[in-house]
């Protein structure tokens, strides 16, 4: 369980750096822009690896009964989350309209998985990501951060939807192989 917590602390901590302009500025001044980016990338990568290993090794301890409603909503909500994730990388109108589609995707994924699992490791993993993504959305809004600029590439939206749904279908099909749990 310690690896899971350390991994989440590294991953989320690296992603919280932009919320503190003073700390981010000090790190950029000391390490340079590329050094700062490397630090964030390395901390995120190590954190992600430790999180995956820690989650896989965590003991199974049920905290609350899984929500059948959340389990029922997960397939549709995850299709939406995958489309939102693809939208984050597409320079289309949806990305501009939604402001923070990747964070919204993470919030949908983590919030529903938190409710649908109810085990200790899942509560720690999905709860951490849900709180972080909600905080990041609010923090970005407070700072006035906006995603993208004007776009004239409506085709990018269609590509994002198609790629998001294709990725969702692949993960749905491989979910049991990859994560040991059948999603349906």
Describe this structure in words.
By secondary structure, this protein is mostly helical. Helices cover 79% and strands 0% of the residues. The chain contains seven helices and no strands. It has helices at residues 2-16, 21-57, 68-87, 93-98, 101-117, 120-143, 154-179. Helix 1 packs antiparallel against helix 2 and helix 1 runs parallel beside helix 6 (120-143). It is globular, with a radius of gyration of 18 Å. The chain starts with a helix and ends in a 5-residue tail after the last helix. 30% of the residues are buried.
Rg, nearest Å: 18 Å
Helix content, binned percent: over 70%
- What kind of sheet is the major sheet? none
Judging from the principal axes of the Cα atoms, what is the shape?
globular
Overall pLDDT score = 90
Determine the number of helices (DSSP H or I, runs of at least 4 residues): 7
Structural class: mainly alpha
Give helix and strand order, one letter per element, not per position: HHHHHHH
Percent in strands: under 5%
